[in-house]
């Protein structure tokens, strides 16, 4: 009698484990929108259909107090949402701060909002204690351990 109870318990445990694995794998399926305003449908090809918007950023002038602002809008170049275009060089103005993760540097606006995660930032020869203008381009495909801001590949940094 004992072997039968153990056998049933083992079968039940295996069935529960199989159901858990099946549900976990089902949750890994991706979805793709069926059209504008339509409900998502299951994608069976495994190919990614999601795209990121191209960000157009314009730095505003700075006053005598050294404060600056940034205007940004998410627009696709052709209105389709495609981001196959080459990165656009742009200027961001703000203050340099250390990120919360070790080795991460971010650019923040006057309110403390993170504008960008600065990749390749070299402070040599630049006074970064005040407002700076950073030139470069956003690279949303870049992998980083910094959890603040979108990756921004820096080409130049200048004070003010």
TrEMBL record:
Give the signal peptide as a residue range, or say none if absent: 1-26
Using the UniProt annotation, give all residue ranges assigned to the region (Disordered). Answer: 31-87
Q: Which PROSITE patterns did the record assign?
A: PROKAR_LIPOPROTEIN
Which ranges are annotated Low complexity under compositional bias?
31-82
Domain of life, per UniProt, equals Bacteria
What are the record keywords, sorted? Signal
**By what name is this protein known?**
Putative membrane protein, glycine-rich
